[in-house]
Structures are given as structure tokens and as C-alpha cells.
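[Q] Does anyone have a clean C-alpha cell version of this?
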Amino acid sequence: MNTSSIHLILLALLLAIVGLFCTLVGAAAGLLARIDGATYATALLRGAVAFAGSASLSLALLTFVLAVL
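[A] Here you go.
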């Protein structure tokens, strides 16, 4: 295989892992907020904020790692 196609496959795999990780973080934050007694809307909002924060941080880290490689 060509090295550019290997890099593309690696990037797609890393983006899938980041997406799964961020989804789990958002779901856990929403669940913990709901268990704490928040309404459904507030729990959904907290989960969305946690998802967005972890996605921003993960993609920034991924960009840094790919720039170094």
C-alpha cells in the first residue's frame, strides 16, 4: 500500500476512536447529571457541553500528533 493511503486509513481510524470517546464522555456526563437530579433538558445540555469540550480537546491533540509525525 501507498504511505498516503496508510496515513488516510490511520486518520479515519483515529477519528472514529475520537468520535466514540467523545460520545461516551457526553453520555456519561448527561447520565451523571440526570442521576444528580437535573431535568432531562439540563442533563442533555450538560452532556452536549461535555461532548463538545472533549471533541475540541481530542481533535486539538490529534492535530498536534499528526503534525509531529
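[Q] Thanks! Anything notable?
[A] Residues 58 and 64 are 10 Å apart (CA to CA).
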